[in-house]
Amino acid sequence: MRVARTNPEPIMNRPAPKRPNHEPMLHRRLPGSLRLLIGKKYQFVPISQIIYLRGNGNYTQLVTTSGQVTFGITLAKMGQRISGAHFVRVHRRHIVNLRYVVDWSGPQQLQLHNGMTIDISRRELVATKQAWVTYLRERQLAGLQPSGHAYCTRPLITSITLRPIGRHGN
Fold first, then answer.
1. Could you write out the DSSP letters of every residue in the chain?
2. Domains along the chain?
3. What is the pLDDT of residues 71-127, one digit of tens each?
4. In what order do the strands lie in the sheet with 67-71?
5. Where is the HTH LytTR-type domain (predicted)?
6. What pLDDT is stored for residue 155 in this prediction?
């Protein structure tokens, strides 16, 4: 029996066939959601369900309507990722979604729909009030109620008086 001689060179030097690259699909952002690395998996969290974020060093705790999760991104970086979506930084440790503010309880506290009370720092008080008034105006111009969800059972505050804060808070 004779074996035909073959030349493996042309086959070995040929490039491998291209396989579809699914990597971009894994990393693309779903509209209206955040892609977060939680543990060893990427998860998509709808921005509309975020109530507030709490920073603790290099970690951020994200509290949503369905629970909470902690991941390794600073609060400052998270603030950049969610800017412009009705979120306001009220303290060096907290960013709040204005859609879930139920009451302005006290001169420097926000009451959220889940019962949590968040302190507003003196440094962020004026910016927080201005963001709240802007949020209310946007909702009013759109013909909507101040709250964009069905979780709030108490009536929402509808206005805040902006006044300059003096040297001693007067």
1. -PPPP---HHHHTSPPPPPP--HHHHHSPPTTEEEEEETTEEEEEEGGGEEEEEEETTEEEEEETTEEEEES--HHHHHHHTTTSSEEEEETTEEEEGGGEEE--STTEEEETTS-EEE--TTTHHHHHHHHHHHHHHHHHTT--S-SSS---SPPP---------TT--
2. 31-141 (2.40.50.1020)
3. 888 999 988 888 777 899 999 999 999 999 988 877 788 989 888 899 999 999 999
4. 67-71, 59-64, 50-56, 94-97, 87-91
5. 34-134
6. 42
